[in-house]
Amino acid sequence: MEEAPTYQAVLDEVGPRLRRLRAKRGLTLAALAETTGISKSTLSRLESGQRRPSLELLLPLAGAYNVPLDDLVGAPEVGDPRVRLTPRPLAHGGTFVPLSRGPGPLQAYKMVIADRGTEPNLRSHEGYEWLYVLEGRLRLVLGEHDIVLGPGEVAEFDTRVPHWFSGAEGRPVEVLSLFGRQGERMHVRARPRS
């Protein structure tokens, strides 16, 4: 991993960066002094590294050059805040994307489940699951029940009960799943309608 530059190294680069920017814009120290209200000698010392850059000096320079302050000081780029999620194949057709980043009692997944046909293969295991249908229709066989859920509908069940689910009507279904391996349940708090 690359080591972050020290503050002193960043400050040492400000002067040369200011000089290059002024030269690129074709400005003299006198013209820049007139625009910013900073004396020629202060600008010269700033560019040569004899004067430490301060916010009081850098703000008028950023305005004169019409650049962000970050460009003057060479601020490191901020990383992309987006989380890159990696889809993984489901053993029985479709894909899932883990939404939880670390270990914990509840794990969240987004799943796209293919229509697996009409013959359910019921399974059971430790845990508790909460399914929310985002798009499409979900066929859920849970014990003796065979139901179809549409967008916005939710199913919540103990996974020790034999179950099976699939896209319905020949199409895949998009589902949000919260799963607790040791039987942890989802806790929902809602206000009653008035």
TrEMBL record:
Keywords: DNA-binding. InterPro entries: Cro/C1-type_HTH, Cupin_2, Lambda_DNA-bd_dom_sf, RmlC-like_jellyroll, RmlC_Cupin_sf, TransReg_Diox_bact_type. It comes from the Bacteria. SUPFAM superfamilies: lambda repressor-like DNA-binding domains (SSF47413), RmlC-like cupins (SSF51182). It comes from Kitasatospora herbaricolor. CDD domains: cupin_XRE_C, HTH_XRE. PANTHER family: HTH-TYPE TRANSCRIPTIONAL REGULATOR, METHYLPHOSPHONATE SYNTHASE. This is XRE family transcriptional regulator.
